[in-house]
Amino acid sequence: xxxxxxxxxxxxxxxxxxxxxxxxxxxxxxxxxxxxxxxxxxxxxxxxxxxx
Length: 52
Known about the structure:
Layout: H1 2-43, H2 47-51
């Protein structure tokens, strides 16, 4: 019974950490898209707009 409780706690911690990593990756991707957009708009290119 104690081992099952331990595994449930471990699973909760694991799912929490993986969701945090996913959020971090998503925010990094959004940040990269913003950098690309500003870089393209400063050069007046519409290639990035077509891709996104």
